[in-house]
Structures are given as structure tokens and as C-alpha cells.
């Protein structure tokens, strides 16, 4: 017996209302996806909103969405460890893995064998955090540059990154800003602000 047009329209309205409620729920708390229906876990809009709120809910997404590049990128940009729940294909996607290891080096553990031997990917990982090198290929574990980054403490690592990106006192200011964020014993930010201001005044005097 075929379904009437009226019944079909009514079911569509119910589906829309359910989706709207679930979207609102996962935007408030991504973990709500755990209690969603299988259809909702396969709904791209719902899952994308969920992982943007709480990246680890990628675990509850459908297999298809675990292989959706945009969805996975949204998750790993929030927390690199969400790479654990991505499809095998995306664990071998260079852009996705780079996004994952940029904040924390340890998600390199979940990357494909090929990317564990990718010099740029591994360098980004070891610049991000200590111990990331243990997940790299044997060849890159022996690389002198990688080893030099791996032995640094977090404040030392931040300082080296700032020196590479900025010059003089500006590097000092950015180092203190980043270190203060992750290390309670960092110098006060006011010192960095003063150094930056002195640098600007010196530049103005030189132009006069």
C-alpha cells in the first residue's frame, strides 16, 4: 500500500523538527550526539556541529562521515587527538594530519606509516610537543634536527619557535605570551609589552 502525499509531508515535517532540535542540542553540548539516532549520526550538518563543539564526538559519527574531510578537519582543528577516530584514508591525508599535529605532536601516533616518515609532518609534530618523535619512522628518529627539537622543554621549544618567526625583542614578547599560556612560572606579560614598546620607540627615533 503506497503512502499518501499527506503522510509523506507529515513525516518530512517531523524529520525537520527532529533535526532542528538535535542541531540545537549538539551546538550546546556536542556529547549529545552519543544519544542520537543512527540517521542523525549520519547527518552531516548535525555531526559537523557536534565536532565543532566537542571534537571527540567524531567517534559516534557514521563511517561515511569519519571519512568526510571537512568534518574531520573541523574535529582535529579543535583537538588533534580526534584523528584517532578518522578513517584510514584521512589518517594518510597530509593536510588533515598536519592540522592534527600542529597543536599537539602526539596525534602523530595515529598517522599513516607514510606520514610518519614525512619530514615536514614530523618536524611540525616535534615542534609542537615533546615525545612526538617516538611515533616517527626510524629514519626520522635519527635525524639530528628532529632530535634537537625533541630534547627541549616546552618553554625552550616555544622560545626557539618564536626566534624562528620573529626578530629581536618581538620574539621575546611572543615567547612570553605563549609560555605564560602554558607555563605558570613564565615572566609577566608586562615585561614583553614594555620591550615591544621600547623597540617601536627606537625604530621611530631611527627614522627621525
Question: How would you describe this structure to a colleague?
Answer:
The chain has 208 residues and is mainly alpha-helical. It has 2 domains: 5-152; 153-208, no CATH class. Helices cover 60% and strands 0% of the residues. The chain has 11 helices and no strands. α1 packs parallel to α3 (44-53), α3 runs parallel beside α4 and α10 packs antiparallel against α11. The termini are far apart. Mean pLDDT is 79; it is low at 5-15 and 180-200.
SS element count, helices: 11
Shape: elongated
Radius of gyration: 23 Å
Helix content: 55-70%
Q: Which band does the percent of strand residues land in?
A: under 5%
Q: H/E order of the elements?
A: HHHHHHHHHHH
> In terms of structural class, how would the helical and strand content be classed?
mainly alpha
Distance between the termini: 89 Å
Q: What is the number of beta strands?
A: 0
* Nearest-integer average pLDDT: 79
Total domain modules: 2
Are there runs of 5+ residues with pLDDT below 50, and where?
Answer: 5-15, 180-200
Largest sheet: none
Amino acid at each position: 500500500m503506497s503512502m499518501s502525499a499527506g503522510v509523506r509531508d507529515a513525516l518530512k515535517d517531523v524529520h525537520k523538527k527532529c533535526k532542528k532540535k538535535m542541531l540545537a542540542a549538539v551546538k550546546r553540548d556536542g556529547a549529545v550526539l552519543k544519544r542520537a539516532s543512527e540517521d542523525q549520526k549520519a547527518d552531516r550538518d548535525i555531526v559537523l556541529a557536534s565536532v565543532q563543539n566537542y571534537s571527540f564526538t567524531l567517534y559516534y559519527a557514521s563511517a561515511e562521515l569519519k571519512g568526510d574531510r571537512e568534518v574531520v578537519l573541523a574535529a582535529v582543528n579543535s583537538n588533534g587527538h580526534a584523528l584517532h577516530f578518522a578513517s584510514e584514508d584521512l589518517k594518510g591525508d597530509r593536510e588533515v594530519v598536519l592540522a592534527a599535529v600542529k597543536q599537539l605532536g602526539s596525534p602523530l601516533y595515529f598517522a599513516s606509516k607514510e606520514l610518519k616518515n614525512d619530514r615536514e609532518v614530523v618536524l611540525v609534530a616535534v615542534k609542537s610537543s615533546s615525545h612526538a618523535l617516538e611515533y616517527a619512522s626510524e629514519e626520522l628518529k635519527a635525524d639530528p634536527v628532529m632530535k634537537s627539537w625533541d630534547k627541549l622543554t616546552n618553554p625552550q621549544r616555544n622560545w626557539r619557535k618564536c626566534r624562528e618567526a620573529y626578530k629581536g625583542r618581538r620574539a621575546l614578547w611572543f615567547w612570553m605570551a605563549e609560555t605564560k599560556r602554558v607555563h605558570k612560572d613564565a615572566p609577566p606579560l608586562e615585561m614583553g609589552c614594555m620591550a615591544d614598546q621600547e623597540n617601536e620607540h627606537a625604530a621611530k627615533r631611527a627614522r627621525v
